[in-house]
């Protein structure tokens, strides 16, 4: 059935030419192993994270343990509480590197120059545009990389401790004045007492 028979136009809308198609680089498959502590709860851990443990790394290489064998028979660590084991192995979970495509990076730098980057972060978070949110957050992180605390305060308009204290003092004084004004207004509304009776 042709597109005209289906009730659609044979002409397709023009594709945008300014934004190149984002293609993620293929990632090498990561291998995982499995461990458990006293509580017998199985924890999935990347091989990269396990390399930080000389004991586990040695067990893998000396025993020739494969990923499939580890899944069927997780490494038992019955002398370690499961929660603690999880914390120890997750500490070395490698952070995912975010590489912002060149077109997106130039786009975000332009947005940043206009001072609209934080508004864009809020908007894409609300709209749940995850890829752009990740790129925006990476751009925000790059904005403060290598900056002093004073420079970061200026970028994010974070008040100093002295400015915080002054604002807090001013707010307290304003609250006292408002409370005093309400007390005075309440006092004016009372009827005068008549104690002239003999």
From TrEMBL:
It comes from the Eukaryota. Residues 1-12 have a biased composition (Polar residues). Residues 130-174 form the SKP1 component dimerisation domain. Residues 166-180 have a biased composition (Basic and acidic residues). Keywords: Ubl conjugation pathway. InterPro entries: SKP1, SKP1-like, SKP1-like_dim_sf, SKP1/BTB/POZ_sf, Skp1_comp_dimer. Residues 1-23, 161-198 are annotated as: Disordered. One of its GO terms (cellular component) is cytoplasm. Residues 13-23, 181-191 have a biased composition (Low complexity). One of its GO terms (biological process) is protein ubiquitination. Pathway: Protein modification; protein ubiquitination. One of its GO terms (molecular function) is cullin family protein binding. SUPFAM superfamilies: POZ domain, Skp1 dimerisation domain-like. Probable essential component of SCF (SKP1-CUL1-F-box protein) E3 ubiquitin-protein ligase complexes, which mediate the ubiquitination and subsequent proteasomal degradation of target proteins. Regulates cell proliferation during embryonic and larval development. Belongs to the SKP1 family. This is Skp1-related protein. It comes from Caenorhabditis briggsae.
